[in-house]
Amino acid sequence: VLLCLGVAxxxxxxxxxxxxxxxxxxxxxxxxxxxxxxxxxxxxxxxxIGASIGGWLADRLGRKPVFTMAxxxxxxxxxxxxxxxxxxxxxxxxxxxxxxFGAAMPNMMAVAAEISAPGRRAFTTAAxxxxxxxxxxxxxLLTQLLPTGFDWRTLFLIGGTLPLLLVPLLx
Length: 171
What we know:
Layout: H1 2-29, H2 33-61, H3 63-81, H4 87-115, H5 121-145, H6 153-166
């Protein structure tokens, strides 16, 4: 359950970090206002598709393997965000990260509920939902703790590395 909560926090971090990093990455990539909107849209499109497909895949392949692969995907593609140099690359990696976020979400909830003691399932479900905004708030807080003028890529390096560290523990 704690690993699922950790994933929820990291997923919240990774979903929100794009908005936190946008003021720094936008000038470097030369993003126009409409392009910024598309970047956010692609992230959300990926999330919706991932959530739809993630549950379906879990019914066929098992929740734990799909959950683990989804965490691996959002970690890798969040990490890949730190390597982009064009608006198109940014849209592609955020779409793919969104697929991972979306597939992880329903499976995280299901796995946490399944392994939780029957009398603690409501608490476990509530904790999972609290983890995501906690992670989102952490992304904004982190910008206040990093040195002034930090590179926006730092946020994606952190947001991508931490889920990858959890992947071996999810087996």
